Amino acid sequence: MLTRNDIQSEKWSISKHTQLSPTDAFGTIEFQGGGHSNKYVRVSFDTKPDLLLHLMTKEWQLELPKLLISVHGGLQNFELQPKLKQVFGKGLIKAAMTTGAWIFTGGVNTEKKKIGLIGLGKHAMFYFISADAQEVK
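Structure for TRPM SLOG domain-containing protein, as requested:
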């Protein structure tokens, strides 16, 4: 019989403590204060890229990008000064719009970063890919 101490001392692992199942987490996101909407999809870390490409090019009818931009953040809370955050956001948007880029993000799991990344989407065409966290060893 398992005791409370046995359960608490057991190390969590993605393979043992989670169950994979299909996700229907995709659709259109409506941004507040501007009537701007865009497509999004949430996928697992091991989703096959050809399935994503099919969704984006066939279902959403997007043209193939000329550039892919991947935005990743750390797990620690990383604060930018408001002015620097604005300059970074505008520069990223300009880079995407002038190059015909798709922008991917891992969907960092801190509330401030989620809001910051989604906030960029109000001004440009952003397609968010949020990957599930992989097992930390």
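The helical segments are 4-9, 14-17, 49-59, 82-99, 111-120.
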